[in-house]
Amino acid sequence: MSLPTSGGQVTSTAVMTSVVSGKIVQYCQVDADIFPVDHTAPAIKMRVALPYGWNRRAMMFGGGGYDGSIPDVTENVPFGPTNEPAPLARGYATFASDSGHEQSPTALPSLDGSFGMNDEALTNFAAGDALKKTRDASLFLLRNAYQEQPDEVYFAGGSTGGREALDVAQRWPTAFNGVISAYPAWNNLAEILDLGYLAQILSQPDAFPGPDKQTLLYNSVISACDGLDGVKDNVVSNPDACHFDPRVLRCPDGADTGPGCLSDAQIAAVTAMSSPFRWPYPVASGETQYPGFPFLSGSDMRTPFLGFGTTAPANPMPQTSGYGLQYWDQWVKYFLTRDPNYNSLAVDPRNPGEWLSRISYLSTIEDRNNADLRPFFRAGGKLVLLHGAADELVSPRSTNDYYTRVRTIVGAQETDASLRYYVVPGANHANFGTPAFAASWDSLTALENWVEKGQSPSNPVVADANHNRTRPLCAYPEWPRYRAGDPNSASSFVCAR
C-alpha cells in the first residue's frame, strides 16, 4: 500500500451467480474495509468480484457525485452498449469502493457531503487518495486468489468517476494501463463556485424559470440551431455555431406574464448559466473561471434529478431544486464552513469574504488539475475521453479546456498517440432521462485493442439507443456534418470542423 492506512480486513466472501449482460457469470465476491489512520475517520469500504474463468484483466470503477456507496461491480463502462458484455461478463476481475465514506440512508443518491467534516475522509474523496488505496488492496486480494498478477489493469468512470479516472492517470501513471473518462467533473472546485453563483442568481425573486419556461427555452434553441449541421434531427451537432439569444423570448415589458415568454430576470439567469463565471480573486490551484453550461446550444435544464430542478434554490435547499445546486449546498455546509446549519446562499462566490482562505485551500485538494499526462503516456497508458455536447450537469466546455491543456503541455503528436477525445452531439449527462441522443459505444473494446494490440480507435461509430440511429464519433474539435443519404446512418455524415 503506497498511501498510509492502518491496515484492512476482509469482512465477507460469497460465491455469486449473476446474469451479467445476458450471460450467467459465477464469481467470488469479496468485501473488505481499508482502515483509516485517523481513528475518527470512516473506513474505505470496497468490493472485488473474482470471476471463474478469469481473463487476466482487472477493471476498477469510479463513483458519482459525492460517492458514498460502492458502485455495482457487474456494471458496464459509461455509455457502454447493452449488446456488448460488461467487464465482469468478459472475464475481468472488477473492483470499486465507496471512496471512504457511507452516505446517509436518508440522503438523495450521491448527495451527502457530511463526510467532509473529517480531513482524512475529505482527502480520500476529493484528492482521490481512496482510489490508490482501493487499487492496491484489490490487486493484493486478486493476486492471492489467482496466484498471479493481471496483465492489464483498467479504470472507467463518469462524472465524479470521470474526474477519478483523470486523477489516477495523473497521480499514479503506472497504476493503470488504460482509462475511460466520461463527462469528467475534473475541475471540481471551479464548477462548485459557478454552481454557487447560479444558486444566488436563481434564488432571486422571479429569476427561476420553471418547467414550462425550461421547455420553452429548450424547444426554441433546438428549433433555431438543429439544422446547422445539415439535417433536422432534434440534435445540435455543431454547438459552437449555435448562438441563441434568449431575448427573443422576452415577455412584454420584461415582466413575467406566463409560460410563453421569459421575464428580464429569467433571461438574465439563463444568460448567466450559459456564460463563463470568473471570480475576481486568486485561489491556490490557479483556476480562474468555469466556462458555463450549454443551455443556449442544446442542453436541457429539465432532465430529472440531474437538471436544474422544478423549484428555485432556497434555504433550506429543497430536494426539488437542481442536483448541482444541492451539491453546492452540501459543499458549503460540510467542506467550506463545516457548519451543517449554515445557509449556503449566504456565501457569495464573487466575494466570499471570511471564506476566501478556506476556498483557496480546498482548491489544492479538489482541483487536481495537472494536465501533464506525459508520465502516463510514456508508461504506455491510453486515455479515452468522452463527453456529451448537451450535458446539463458537467459542462463539456470544461472538458474541451482539459483536452486543450493536455495538448498544449504534451504536444499534438504525443497526445494523438495516446489520447482520444470525443464529444457526442445531443448526449447529456450519463444518458439520464430522455436525452436527444442516448449515446452507446463500446469504448472498452476500443481501449483493449489500443493498449494490447497497438490499434488506435479508427472511425468509431456511436449509436443512439433510443432512436435506432448512428453517427460518426468525431474526435474533438470535429463534429458530424450531414452530407447525403439516410439521416439515421453514420455513413451519411462526415466529421467536419
Structural account:
The protein is an alpha/beta fold and 497 residues long. It is built from 13 helices and 16 strands. Strands 1-2-3-5-4-6-7-10-11 form a 9-stranded mixed sheet, with helices on both faces. It has a 3-stranded antiparallel sheet with strand order 12-13-14, with no helix packed on it. Helix 11 (396-410) crosses helix 12 (412-418). The N and C termini lie far apart (46 Å).
Summarize the helices and strands and which ones pair or pack.
Blueprint: E1 8-20, E2 23-34, E3 44-51, E4 57-61, H1 87-90, E5 93-97, H2 119-126, H3 129-146, E6 152-158, H4 160-171, E7 178-182, H5 188-202, H6 211-225, H7 264-273, E8 277-278, E9 289-290, H8 323-336, H9 356-366, H10 374-378, E10 382-388, H11 396-410, H12 412-418, E11 419-424, E12 439-440, H13 443-453, E13 461-464, E14 469-472, E15 479-482, E16 493-496
Parallel strand pairs: 4-5, 4-6, 6-7, 7-10, 10-11
Antiparallel strand pairs: 1-2, 2-3, 3-5, 8-9, 12-13, 13-14, 15-16
Quick recap:
The protein is an alpha/beta fold.
Mean pLDDT: 97
Strand content: 15-25%
Helix tally equals 13
* Strands side by side in the biggest sheet: 1-2-3-5-4-6-7-10-11
Please compute the radius of gyration using only Cα atoms: 22 Å
Characteristic terms for this protein:
alpha/beta, 497 residues, nine-stranded mixed beta sheet
